[in-house]
Amino acid sequence: MKSFSRSERVNEQIRRELADLIRSAIKDPHLSAHMKLVTLTDVEVTADYAHAKVFYTSLSAAEQREKIDHGLKAAAGFLRRELARRVRIHHIPELHFVYDGSVERGTQLAHLIDEAVKSDQHE
Q: What share of the chain has pLDDT > 70, as a percent?
């Protein structure tokens, strides 16, 4: 059984807590509708706990992603304060949201593979 390092446990705890906060604590009606479509894929906290890259994806349309990105960045201070109430570490990192396009790329690749298989079957 693999044992997880402290940093991995902290990353995962921050990811879980932020996911819950994004779903439940953002009350701004302009943001909350878009935030329901957000999935946090990973968190990477620096060794000194000063910064955290929070990777997210969304199944919403590309034009909605800009609103989501802006909303997450606007809510970063609020989310950090709320995170401080839930996570017991000596320093709550500054949050930096980064769009994770890997899910989208995976879907595109799967679609291309499906098309290639279909074209092979018709030949």
A: 93
Beta-bridge mates of residue 52: 45, 95
In the chain the domains, ranked by start, together with CATH numbers, are: 6-122 (3.30.300.20)
Residue 88 CB contacts under 8 Å (≥ 6 apart), including other chains: none
Q: What is the pLDDT of residue 26?
A: 83
SS3 state of residue 99 = strand
pLDDT of 116: 83
E strand intervals along 1-123: 38-45, 51-58, 94-99
Asked whether the CA dihedral 32, 66, 38, 96 is positive or negative, the reply is negative
* Residue 58 CA: distances (Å) to CA of 81, 97, 98: 24, 13, 12
